Structures are given as structure tokens and as C-alpha cells.
Amino acid sequence: MSPMSTPDDPDVMDQLTGLAPDSRLGLLRRQRPDVVRHLQRSDAAIFTPPNDGGLSAPERAAAALRVAVLLRDARLQEHYRARVTERGGSQLIASAADLATTDGDPRWRTILGHVDRLTTAPDSAQREHIDALLASGLSPQALIALSQLVAYVNFQARVRAGLRLLGAAHEQADA
Amino acid sequence: MSKPMRDFTRGELEWAPWITPVDADAASQEQLQALKITPSNRAVGAYSLVLAHDPASLAERSPLYNGIMFGARGLPRADRELGAVATSQVNGCSYCASVHAKRFVELTKRPDVMERLYGEGLQAALEPRHRAVTDFSAKLARDPVAMQDSDLAPLRAQGLTDLEILDLVHAVAMFSWANRLMQSLGEPVPA
């Protein structure tokens, strides 16, 4: 999936929701062209950045997979599982998808712990967690990228849920 | 688990980072572009300077935020701000809640609505429209996969169009994003 899709191609959110750009729901989305554009570009900036600051592309996809598992969103899990595999990160899938895992080196386990905390208990985050992430070897850039990534997938899941509701309502109206 | 509203304050709060922000005087071109700093606009807050450590994501997130919260027509801004407050209450982000409670009151001149939410929490007695917006926002913020078609009914009963509902979804989603950054990268402090 190219991050630079044309306006007529389904973008990432279209694909996640299973809708065509010229469908009623696709056209509804496109009543907010700035949102569509920057949502797609955010996806690219987070998952295929110009330089990764030490948080690799497979790691990013695997962290996103973990968010999807925590949110119990099957479609999002499928999407990120495929991305991890495409990026050569299949060895990360097991630890990312297993919420009880103790696999992985200390840096990866610290990352996964932060993904969990940020997704399900953001209010429990403390300065010491940031210190631990930096001490585990993440650069400031990678720390911010990780934070943006987890927050973005949480954003993505809510947009998807809302579009699903609006799409279902349209299907009923057409029936 | 949401914080009890009694822990919230609508007094002035600032936000103190837990990671050293980018030094604007030593920032790269990419960082400066992401921050949209020009020689005449140096008043960039600590939050943006922290996010500038990863300029690629900041550069897209800022216009996305603006498109969602300030996009013309569609859902009245006050309802977007109410969605932001409800989301922030679910997540326990007191800084976001205080900023957006203030914006809601500026837009509506209805401090009583925020006083009820602060005093009694998300179950406070609210007018039907505020109730509908708050309930939808809180549930979407808390558990998106659990949303059901029937969750749209109260919004439809208030006459919200598809675009207005989409605007609310975007606002809740954006604060599901923003809360997590604010809560994990720093802490609120009294001004």
C-alpha cells in the first residue's frame, strides 16, 4: 500500500473499514478532506518514516499489532499482522500478540510494557517509565515515535468504530 | 479507569514535560518546519517542542488536529469540545479536560454544564443533547469495539447528521490520541 495514494485510491482508513472512496461513506469521509489527507500522511509518517530513529519498521508494526490485540479489534489485528510480516518482522508477532509474554530482550519488553500502559491505563504513566524507556536504549526520537504510534492506533480504532456505525446505519437504510 | 472528577480542576494548569524538549535554537530544519516556527513566532510551547523530537509525525498531526477541531460547518465546535472533555475524563487527563472545559465555556457561556461534569462526573444530570454527546463520546473513548448501532440513536434523536456524527467521532478519536501523549510525556502542574 503506497503512502502516496491518489485521491481515487482507497486509503488506509477506507481499507480498514472496507469501503470504496466513491461509496456513500467514502464520500462522507471526503467532506473532511484535510482530515483524510493528514490521517493518511500521519499513517505514513509513523509507519514508514524517512528515518526511524532506532525504532525499526517491523517493531513499529508489531507495537501497533499489540495495541489492536489490547483493543480486541480483529480487523486492526489482521491489518497489522500483515504489515509486520511484510516488513520482515514475523519473529516479533508472537511476543507482540501475547499479552502475557515475557519473551524478548529487556528493551523490547520495556517497549511492550509501555504499549500496554499507554493503551489501557494512560493515567498510570509516570516519569520513571519515560526514564526506563530512554535507559533501555530508545533515542528521544524513538520514544516520541513510539508514543505517537500507540496514540495513533488508539485514534485509528475509534475512527474505524465510528465509521462502522455510520456504515451499518446506511446499510439498514438501503435494505 | 477514569479519575473521579473531584481531582480535576478548572484552575489554570500548565504542563511540565518528563523528557527534555527540543531546543528551538538548536532545532533542525525538519523540526522547525514541523513546529512552523518563523522568526516572528517563537512562542512554541513545551508540548510541541517535546513532540518535535519526531518531526515527521508532528508535521502531520498538527494539521490533522486543526482539521478535526476547527473544520468549518458540521458539528458545532462546542460539541467537539464537550466530546474532548468527556474523552479526557474517561482517560483521566486533567490537563486536556481543563483546557477544553474552558473552551466549551468560552463558546457556550454555559459554565454550569462543566460545573456539573466536574461536580458529579460523567453521570451528571445533563440536558438531552449534552447527555447524548457525552455518553457517545465516553463509550467510544473507553471501548470502541463495544460500540453498537443503538449507540447512535440518542445522537440521531438530537438531529445530528452523518457529518456531525463523524466530526464527533474524529474529536473523540483525536483526544484518545492527545490524552495519551499528554499523560505519558509529562504532567500537569499549577500555573
Features:
A: 175 residues, B: 191 residues, mainly alpha, 59% helix
Write up this protein.
- The complex is a heterodimer of chains A (175) and B (191).
- Helix content of chain A is 69%, strand content 0%.
- Chain A is an all-alpha fold and 175 residues long.
- In chain A, helix 4 (57-70) packs antiparallel against helix 5 and helix 4 packs parallel to helix 6.
- Chain A is elongated.
- In chain B, 59% of the residues lie in helices and 5% in strands.
- Chain B is built from 9 helices and 2 strands.
- Chain B has helices at 29-35, 46-51, 55-70, 77-91, 94-108, 111-120, 128-142, 153-157, 162-185; strands at 13-17, 186-190.
- Chain B has a two-stranded antiparallel ribbon with strand order 1-2.
- In chain B, helix 4 crosses helix 7 (128-142) and helix 4 crosses helix 9.
- The model of chain B is unreliable at 1-6 (pLDDT under 50).
- Chains A and B meet through helix 3, helix 7, helix 8 and helix 9 of A and helix 3 and helix 9 of B.
Provide the residue-averaged pLDDT of chain A.
92
Strand tally of chain B = 2
Output the structural class of chain A: mainly alpha
The helical percent of chain A reads 55-70%
Most extensive chain contact?
A-B, 59 and 54 residues
Q: Biggest sheet of chain B, strands in spatial order?
A: 1-2
Largest sheet of chain B, in brief, is: 2 strands, antiparallel
Q: Helix amount of chain B, in percent?
A: 55-70%
Strand content of chain B: 5-15%
Name the helix and strand elements of chain A from N-terminus to C-terminus, one letter apiece.
Answer: HHHHHHHHH
Spatial separation of the terminal alpha carbons of chain B? 26 Å
Number of strands of chain A: 0
Q: Please identify the oligomeric state.
A: heterodimer
What does the radius of gyration of chain B come to? Answer: 17 Å
Nearest-integer average pLDDT of chain B: 91
Identify the overall geometry of chain B: globular
How many angstroms does the end-to-end distance of chain A come to? 33 Å
Poorly predicted regions of chain B are 1-6
Radius of gyration of chain A: 17 Å
Tell me the β content of chain A. Answer: under 5%
